[in-house]
Amino acid sequence: MTIQYFSKNGILLPLSDATIPLENIAYQYGFGVYETLKVRNKILYFAKQHIERLLQSATIIDLKHIFTPLKINLHIQEVVQKNSVENCNIKILLIGGKEAEDACLFILPLAPLFPDKKLYSGGATVETVQYERFLPNAKTLNMLRSYLYYTKTSRQGHYDMLFLDNKGNVLEGSRTNFFVIKGTTLTTPPKEKVLEGVTRQTVIATAKKSGFVVKEETIPFSKLGNFDGAFLTCTNAKIIPLIQIDDLKFPEIPSKLKELMQIYNKFLEVSKGIFTE
Fold first, then answer.
1. Alpha-carbon separation of residue 64 from 56, 58, 67, 129, 200 (angstroms)
2. How far is the C-alpha of 90 from the C-alpha of 268, rounded, in Å?
């Protein structure tokens, strides 16, 4: 895959110019928000939802800027078309400044990330740690602890680190949303307490249309054994089933979860990157 161009404030530039000045205090202090979109087979997925979340994150941290959803979408499309790639990730960085006019919008394509295919059939393992993200509804550049936890657990062969609140309830992964399943009922932590992923949104909507019941409820770690199984969702991986959380092992991937995975894959094929509830 060859990537040649990125966008800075709506201007297409050579990738070699994708730099940030060392004196940029806003970037040094993490005063910024970001999104990662997916291009699959030349189709850009769910740009509207990602842009909405980017701007919501900016509002939460009081990051002023001059960019509109329409302009951001246009700039994303320009980057995708100019680079003419079939599969890639699109990273959007919105970095704040002293005034709204000083904010910078960077849009750049990156090499796509694909999970090991064995995870879909064999399931993944995760560890847990007590940690609650600051401003959980905002996708900010303040990712150090998440990065450290993810790096630690991945070195030990696990897919992700799950975060628990101070009462022992499961919240989310370092880069994923969390679900449990029992029969045809899915349960996921309330969106007020986590970063509401775009894949989370589309999985919930798709599941409901396919006859599943979806609940947003607190999920105590101590009660996980009462469910048939569990899974994670994220942009890069779609739905990843879990076979082990710490010492808790699920005997198999539930048949209804396998069915949901097939339904969601079909939804991605027919949606053509557009999602409307």
1. 11, 7, 9, 34, 27
2. 17
CATH assignment of 5-110, among 3.40.50.150, 3.30.470.10, 3.40.50.300, 1.10.260.40 = 3.30.470.10
What ranges in the chain are assigned the alpha helix state H? 25-28, 47-60, 69-83, 118-122, 144-155, 198-209, 255-271
Domains of the chain, residue spans: 5-110, 118-270
String of DSSP letters for 121-152: HH-EEEEEEE---SSTTS-BS--HHHHHHHHH
CATH C-level class of 118-270: alpha beta
* pTM across the whole model: 0.95
pLDDT, tens digit, for every residue of 126-165?
A: 999 999 999 999 999 999 999 999 999 999 999 999 999 9
In contact, 205 and 277? CB cutoff 8 Å: yes
Is residue 270 within 8 A of residue 197, CB to CB? The reply is no
